[in-house]
Specification:
By secondary structure, the protein is of the alpha+beta class. It folds into two domains: 2-47 and 150-217 and 324-374, FAD/NAD(P)-binding domain (3-Layer(bba) Sandwich), CATH 3.50.50.60; 89-147 and 220-322, D-Amino Acid Oxidase, subunit A, domain 2 (D-Amino Acid Oxidase, Chain A, domain 2, 2-Layer Sandwich). It has helices at 15-26, 60-80, 101-111, 120-126, 149-164, 208-211, 288-299, 303-306, 351-364; strands at residues 2-11, 31-34, 50-53, 85-87, 90-94, 116-119, 137-141, 145-148, 168-171, 176-180, 187-190, 193-202, 220-229, 244-247, 256-259, 267-271, 310-320, 327-331, 334-341. The strands form three sheets. Strands 1, 2, 9, 10, 11, 12, 18 and 19 form an eight-stranded mixed sheet that branches. An eight-stranded mixed sheet has the order 6-7-5-14-15-16-13-17, with helices on both faces. Strand 11 and strand 12 (193-202) form a beta hairpin. The radius of gyration is 21 Å and the shape is globular. The two termini are 38 Å apart. The structure holds flavin-adenine dinucleotide.
């Protein structure tokens, strides 16, 4: 067992860990970034080509934080010299009686983001591929779009290396077996190392609970299934011709989302929500039942896709927290351990900002961002 000492250890190189490493390197801090698999793997929550980014939140606090998040993405794009964000426009919809679009419209109004409240009839007029009941509640946000997910993670690790030089160490295929939180300093045990950290940032996604068993918030890894459809008329689903969209339904497991064919893999469609899963034993196949569920949804929303061939499938993990609230902050009783669990299926768009928050909290012990709603406290 080699004993290593490191000033800043970031555990997990997904969207949150790569962002933390990038922001720490940007401030000249030495980093040791640990990843159990290969960088860019497809076992966690951040793989795949694209994620939806939008201000459209029913909770105005998240909508307002997206103003900061979009600024953080712009900074990253400038540092990287490449675009990661594609503006496509976005619609949020729900059936009458579901109090979602009304809240989203209020949030967008409150933060001064351009939007247009409309109906299912108007939606069909604007985008004939949509065929929903006329009285469907709809809000359109022109600034919504997609983020290049896997590329953003890779770019942040590359920048952490480029900005940090030798001060940035990255260990792949290096699973942390245990974190000793009883020791004077957070001590990580891997198969070959005993790593003593001055400061530890845990961004372990669906594995957070395993690594921090006394985490005061219940975190549930769930299995998400994604389908990529080959549209009969690709032009009608191309970026600029088809918006990202999120449909809030009644009850559980009745929310669906989709995005234009930004990846060349077809139109990404999926249900928001899935069964609990052990992150170390995930079934990576997608059964007929789920495919039928998504096709049924498409029949009542995007009928031209309902019978379209599925070109590609993807399985991915959410880490669900109560009320889909993020949890980011110091672990109770340890001023030298930060934990970030900002997922619940909507964390990617905030990841670059979460990276900045983690660097602030690590180096300054505070941040000027309004993240009180993300504090870690027992529920
Ligand atoms: C299908 C799907 C669609 C989504 N769509 C959207 C969307 O449209 N918009 C949006 O904003 N968000 C979306 N999200 C959510 C978003 O992708 C996640 O919130 C985000 O990627 C979480 O990043 P993370 O870094 O916390 O997790 P991960 O990317 O899983 O990173 C955790 C890392 O820690 C590593 N790790 C864990 N344990 C150990 C260990 N013991 N030792 C070493 N390394 C370890 C893991 O291997 C992993 O690489 C979606 C998620 C899924 C699954």
């Amino acid at each position: 067992m080699h004993t290593l000492h490191a000033q800043n250890v970031v555990l997990g190189a997904g969207a949150m860990g790569s962002a933390a490493a990038y922001h720490l390197a940007r401030r000249g801090e030495p980093i040791l970034l640990l990843e159990q698999f290969a960088l860019g793997h497809d076992r966690g929550s951040s793989h795949g080509a694209a994620r939806i980014a939008r201000h459209s939140y029913a909770d105005p606090r998240y909508a307002r934080l997206m103003l900061d998040a979009f600024r953080a993405w712009k900074e990253l794009e400038a540092d990287a010299g490449q675009n990661l964000y594609l503006r496509t426009g976005g619609v949020s919809l729900c059936p009458p009686g579901v109090d979602y679009v009304a809240q989203v419209a209020l949030s967008l109004q409150a933060i001064g983001v351009p939007h247009r409240r409309t109906t299912g009839r108007e939606l069909h007029r604007a985008w004939p591929v949509f065929d929903v009941p006329d009285d469907t509640d709809v809000v359109f946000e022109p600034d919504a779009g997609t983020l290049a997910a896997a590329r953003a993670v890779a770019v942040q690790v590359e920048l952490a290396r480029a900005l940090g030089g030798e001060r940035t160490q990255v260990l792949e295929h290096c699973p942390v077996r245990r974190i000793d939180l009883e020791a004077d300093r957070p001590t990580l045990l891997t198969d070959a190392h005993r790593i003593i950290a001055d400061r530890l940032i845990v961004t372990a996604g669906a594995w957070t609970r395993q690594l921090v068993p006394n985490f005061p918030v219940p975190l549930r890894p769930t299995r998400q299934q994604v389908l990529y459809f080959r549209p009969p008329d690709p032009a009608t689903f191309a970026p600029g011709q088809f918006p990202v969209f999120f449909r809030k339904g009644e009850g559980d497991w009745n929310d669906f989302y989709a995005m234009p064919a930004v990846t060349g893999w077809g139109v990404k469609v999926a249900r928001h929500g899935g069964p609990d899963v052990d992150p170390d034993a995930v079934d990576r196949t997608i059964g007929d039942e789920y495919r039928a569920t998504v096709r049924q949804f498409l029949r009542s929303h995007l009928p031209s896709l309902a019978a379209a061939p599925i070109d590609r499938t993807e399985v991915c993990l959410y880490t669900m927290a109560p009320h889909e609230q993020f949890r980011v902050g110091l672990l109770n009783g340890r001023p030298d351990v930060l934990v970030a669990s900002p997922c619940s299926g909507h964390g990617f768009k905030f990841s670059c900002l979460v990276g900045r928050v983690l660097a602030d909290l690590t180096l300054l012990g505070r941040t000027d961002l309004a993240i009180d709603l993300w504090r870690i406290e027992p529920v």
